[in-house]
Backbone:
């Protein structure tokens, strides 16, 4: 897998050795990939988060903060960016720790250009997939937010598989009213089918697992 | 007792009733002598008094009321004889009692002592010595083969691995002597011949359980009187002390090795990192430059930027290596005049325990007058230690008695030449390869020792080489310029 020239993506590099930083920058520019170079983790955090598919090439040996610690901090703070670790001496424990924390790859200096380009391509692809999924989830969430509280309640009951009659009984409404709420809800959620709605409900986590269609436990 | 009483009565009867005119009363002395055989001081005194009374009584019985001069004189003589006999017997008895008391004291000390004491009959050795024999191993072997243990305490028996003294007493223990013990006994005999009274040596004996014990021996010279020459040998068991010392030595050596390896490892890792950074940047810039050139519209500015950085990082790598070299030069150490002979003595003292533990005997030959060499004493000592340790390890396969290490120093023109020869397995393959860094023949070696040694020697204007001996083993030849050559240091 390689990165196509002009693809909308950005490679962030964090290394306190400006020469390493510059050489990686030059390499990515030579294949037409956008790079953002940072000589410290703080500089990376101060910069605006990338809006396009991106990845972070991170040196393990940094002045101030260890690269592995920084990688874990990003995960804790919910900053999702695929990480490729580079190190001067790739000893096993570090590799293991880095991979366990979800690094895409672990490159030992001096690395070959093909190696770093291939790893970055994998990382960018992973980020692209994640971003697309996040985007879809965000759209579903905004649709759910546009529902009235009654409609949200009805949706929660519908995705558990209750029939209109049962929902009406639970909500102290008539079956007719439930049907009206249900129709509005399906339209606003832009659900193509009942199965589609269930999938969205699953994504949003609105389903109450204690409610069953048969053998109520409520 | 009974005999003495009946004899006294007989004498009395004879003295009082017989018409014989003689000094019969003198015979009372035999009564006192018989009483003396009882070894009781009081009884001797009592018998003297009783005999004197009987003599007086006898005189009065036979010469009652008749004052005659001659019998009175005879009585006086008899009384004096009885008195003298009694006093002498009593004194003898007192002396004998003192003697036996001190004998008993000696015996109880001998038996109860926590350290081994045994008496050994070395008469044969002394006879040979008196016949003008020189104390040597041959003479002593003969003598020791004939010697036997005449007395020993329990500690001595236990020392050799016996359960009771009786098993050791009357036995010949030549089979328990190690070569070193025989050599020590020779030295002790030589000291006796020169007039010494006590010989002290640290030696090793075998035990009957095929083990060995290290002891400090003290041998007391036998008294000159009499033909029986028994020596009293005391031995203090220092096996445990020696083992502890050897263990300490071993752990110290290991620790030293570990700390050397770790500091070397850390140093190597940090140097590697420092050189790796610019090299890594160089490779990436080269690759990137090639990609810039391969583009449809090559970017001359970008390529020239890559080349600039390649140059910059190459200089950076060279700088790192220069720093490492100057660091090494800084550790050149002090330059002083070194007495090689004294240095060898000191080094051998330091390594004495480990050499003993490896059963290596060291032979040093050197001319009386040695010129000094100029350099760093510590570094020379490191070189020497390294060569001695290598030789020791090379001989670990050889038989214990045949592990000899020779240090021979000679003066050749303006140079001092020291040869360190072992009788180990010799060196297989290329002799020069030994001095290459990271070349090692040892399973746990790092292959830096000889390479560092050679570097040190060459920095001092000398030369270190190796050769195989004709009779087996290897020799390392260390050639150093003698002072006062002008001081040269080669980086």
Residues:
């Amino acid at each position: 897998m390689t990165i196509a020239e002009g693809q909308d993506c950005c490679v962030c590099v964090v290394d306190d050795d400006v020469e390493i930083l510059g050489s990686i920058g030059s390499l990515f520019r030579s294949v037409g990939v956008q790079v953002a170079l940072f000589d410290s983790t703080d500089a990376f955090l101060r910069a605006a988060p990338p809006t396009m598919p991106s990845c972070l090439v991170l040196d393990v040996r940094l002045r101030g903060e260890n690269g592995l610690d920084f990688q874990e901090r990003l995960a804790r703070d919910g900053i999702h960016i695929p990480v490729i670790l580079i190190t001067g001496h790739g000893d096993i424990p570090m590799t293991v720790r880095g991979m366990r924390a979800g690094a895409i790859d672990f490159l030992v200096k001096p690395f070959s250009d093909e190696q770093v380009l291939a790893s970055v391509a994998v990382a960018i692809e992973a980020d692209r997939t994640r971003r697309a999924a996040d985007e879809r989830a965000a759209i579903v969430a905004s649709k759910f937010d546009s529902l009235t509280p009654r409609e949200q309640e009805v949706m929660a009951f519908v995705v558990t598989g209750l029939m209109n009659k049962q929902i009406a009984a639970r909500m102290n409404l008539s079956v007719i009213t439930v049907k009206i709420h249900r129709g509005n809800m399906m339209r606003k959620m832009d659900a193509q089918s009942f199965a589609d709605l269930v999938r969205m409900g699953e994504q949003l986590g609105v389903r109450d697992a204690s409610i069953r269609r048969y053998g109520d436990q409520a | 007792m009974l005999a003495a009483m009946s004899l006294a009565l007989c004498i009395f009867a004879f003295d009082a009733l017989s018409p014989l005119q003689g000094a019969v009363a003198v015979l009372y002395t035999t009564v006192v002598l018989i009483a003396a055989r009882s070894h009781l001081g009081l009884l001797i005194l009592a018998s003297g008094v009783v005999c004197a009374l009987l003599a007086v009584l006898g005189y009065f019985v036979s010469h009652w009321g008749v004052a005659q001069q001659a019998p009175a004189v005879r009585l006086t003589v008899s009384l004096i004889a009885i008195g003298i006999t009694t006093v002498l017997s009593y004194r003898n008895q007192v002396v004998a009692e003192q003697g036996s008391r001190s004998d008993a004291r000696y015996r109880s000390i001998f038996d109860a002592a926590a350290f081994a004491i045994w008496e050994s009959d070395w008469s044969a050795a002394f006879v040979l010595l008196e016949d003008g024999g020189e104390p040597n191993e041959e003479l002593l072997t003969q003598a020791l083969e004939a010697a036997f243990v005449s007395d020993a305490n329990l500690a001595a028996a236990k020392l050799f691995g016996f359960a009771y003294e009786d098993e050791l007493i009357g036995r010949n223990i030549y089979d328990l002597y190690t070569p070193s013990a025989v050599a020590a006994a020779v030295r002790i005999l030589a000291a006796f011949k020169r007039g010494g009274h006590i010989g002290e040596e640290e030696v090793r004996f075998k035990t009957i359980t095929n083990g060995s014990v290290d002891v400090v021996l003290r041998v007391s010279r036998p008294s000159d009187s009499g033909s029986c020459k028994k020596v009293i040998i005391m031995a203090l068991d220092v096996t445990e002390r020696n083992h502890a010392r050897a263990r300490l030595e071993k752990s110290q050596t290991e620790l030293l090795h570990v700390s050397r390896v770790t500091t070397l490892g850390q140093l190597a890792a940090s140097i590697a990192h420092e050189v790796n950074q610019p090299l890594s940047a160089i490779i990436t810039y080269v690759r990137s430059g090639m990609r810039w050139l391969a583009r449809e519209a090559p970017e001359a500015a970008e390529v020239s930027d890559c080349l600039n950085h390649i140059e910059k990082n190459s200089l950076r790598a060279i700088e790192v290596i220069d720093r490492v070299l100057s660091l090494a030069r800084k550790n050149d150490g002090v330059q002083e005049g070194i007495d090689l002979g004294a240095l060898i003595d000191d080094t051998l003292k330091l390594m004495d325990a480990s050499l003993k533990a490896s059963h290596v005997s060291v032979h040093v030959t050197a001319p009386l007058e040695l010129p000094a060499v100029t350099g760093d004493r510590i570094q020379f000592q490191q070189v020497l230690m390294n060569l001695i340790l290598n030789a020791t390890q090379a001989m670990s396969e050889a038989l214990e008695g045949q592990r000899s290490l020779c240090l021979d120093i000679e003066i050749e023109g303006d140079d001092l030449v020291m040869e360190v020869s072992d009788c180990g397995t010799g060196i297989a393959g290329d002799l020069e390869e030994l001095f290459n860094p990271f070349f090692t023949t040892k399973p746990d070696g790092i292959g830096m020792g000889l390479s560092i040694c050679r570097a040190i020697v060459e920095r001092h204007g000398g030369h270190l080489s190796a050769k195989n001996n004709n009779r087996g083993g290897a020799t390392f030849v260390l050639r150093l310029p003698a002072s006062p050559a002008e001081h040269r240091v080669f980086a």
